[in-house]
Amino acid sequence: MSGPVHLALPLPLPKPAPGCDVCGSLVSQRQAARDRGDLSAATDADVEIRNHPHRTRGRR
Fold this sequence. Notes:
Residues 33-60 are annotated as: Disordered. This protein is mainly α and 60 residues long. Helix content is 47%, strand content 0%. It is built from two helices and no strands. The chain has helices spanning 21-35, 39-51. It is flat and about 50 Å long.
């Protein structure tokens, strides 16, 4: 018998960058996908929001 399986908690929903039209559109797409029960498309929108480049990300 193998050892126990450890699962991580799901990531929180990504927050769009303030004033970013692309992020705003992705948030709308995510909500529309959730409303129609398409969780795959909603997750895709989450990934796009997380990966969308912004000049302020990574700066301290």
